[in-house]
Predict the structure.
Amino acid sequence: QVQLVESGGGMVQAGESLRLSCLVSRNIFVINAMGWYRQAPGKQRELVAAIAPSGTTDYADSVKGRFTISKDNAKNSVYLQMTSLKPEDTAVYYCNVALWASRWRLTPSSGWGQGTQVTVSS
C-alpha cells in the first residue's frame, strides 16, 4: 500500500509564501503523475497542480503564476511552492496521484492522507 504524508502547512499573512512537502512510502513517480489538491471549507476537493512522470506540469487557473509543483524521485517526495498567497487559498492541501489525461475531470477515490492545513489571513 502507498502512504502519503503531507507537511509544511501553517498560518501566514496574505502575500507570504509556504512550501508544502509530500512524502510517499514508495517510489511511484516513474509511472504515475502526481498532484496537489485542496479542499476549502464547504467546497469540493479540487486539483490545483499536477506533474507528470516526465516533469511536465499543469496548474489550475486560480494558482497559475503563483504555485510551483516539483518532485524528487530519489526522495519519494512531491513539493508545492506557494507564493503570493491569498485568503482564498485557505484550505486543507493533499497530495495524491493524478490521472494525467483526465486530471481536470477525475480525482482519486482512495489513497488520501491526512492533508496539511494552509490558512491565509488578510
About this structure: The first strand starts at residue 4 and ends at 7. The chain has a mean pLDDT of 95. DSSP finds no helices and ten strands in the chain. The two ends are 40 Å apart (CA to CA).
